[in-house]
Amino acid sequence: MLSKLFKKSKLQIFAPINGEIIPLDQVPDPVFSQKMLGEGVAIMPKKGSIHAPIDGTVILVSDTKHAIGLRSSDGTEILIHIGLETVSLKGNGFTVLVKAGDAVSVGQSLIEVDWDYISEHAKSIITPIVITNSAERNVKCEVAKEGIMGETVLMTISTK
Fold first, then answer.
1. Between 55 and 7, whose confidence is greater?
2. 3-class state of residue 57 by DSSP
3. What three-state secondary structure class fits 7?
């Protein structure tokens, strides 16, 4: 009974888009593959919008619209970085549907993406999903090969 009282709660991070799940160390960008921003996974998208992978709050929308930061109620911070070297697109190809401070729910659409434009003008459409405060968390990456938006659990997070 006491073990249930003191059991650490776990946060599930769902796929924000449909696509192939790729280990972060296989992302062709050292900032992500060397986990400089934190632990996580990546998805090779199969089209569609970026959706909220958690219930939480938007804490950052980059000026160039290619990245969004979210915080869960337990303090876990998630960065979704759409494509590689997409900052150079200066917001072209992205339509942001939320702003910093907005509460979001799993599955809620956050950013519409023109994948054809991104494919043509950026290095890659691979989309890293990173726990930016993973040093303070236990992050367990799941081993599914295919992600289904709002259904597939990508990571399970618990506090240390």
1. 55
2. strand
3. coil
Percentages helix, strand, coil for the chain (3-state, rounded to 5) are: 15, 40, 40
- Per-residue pLDDT at 50 exceeds 60: yes
Query: Which residues are designated catalytic?
Result: 81
Do 18 and 48 contact (CB within 8 A), yes or no?
Answer: yes
Q: 146-155 burial by CB neighbour count: b if 16+ within 10 A, else e?
A: ebebbebebb
Structural domains of the chain, with CATH: 11-159 (2.70.70.10)
**Model confidence over 10-21: pLDDT tens digits?**
999 999 999 999
* Band (160; pLDDT cuts 50, 70, 90): confident
∠ CA 122-124-125, nearest 5°, is: 100
Distance CA 13, CA 35 (A): 18
Q: What is the pLDDT of residue 55?
A: 98
Interacting residues of 153 by C-beta distance below 8 A, sequence separation 6+: 12, 13, 14, 142, 144
